[in-house]
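Minutes, project check-in
Item: structure for the 72-residue chain
Input as provided by the requester:
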Amino acid sequence: MINKSKDVDDTLFLGVITGATLALLIWTSIVVYDIQKDVKDIRVTLDTIQETLKSIEHSNMILETDISSKSK
């Protein structure tokens, strides 16, 4: 009787450990997927910002060139 109870306790313990490990694995997978999605969105935003800054820089260079030519 004691051996049967010990076997049930061991099986229950292994089941709980397996369930907790599986739950953590699924949670980690979801977190990594969300982080990858956020990094992709950030990359797109940074590319947009870079293009905007390049166009502003280009327009400032033209403006500075125009001002310097008028001052002479």
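Outcome recorded: Residues 24-72 form one domain.
No further action items on this chain.
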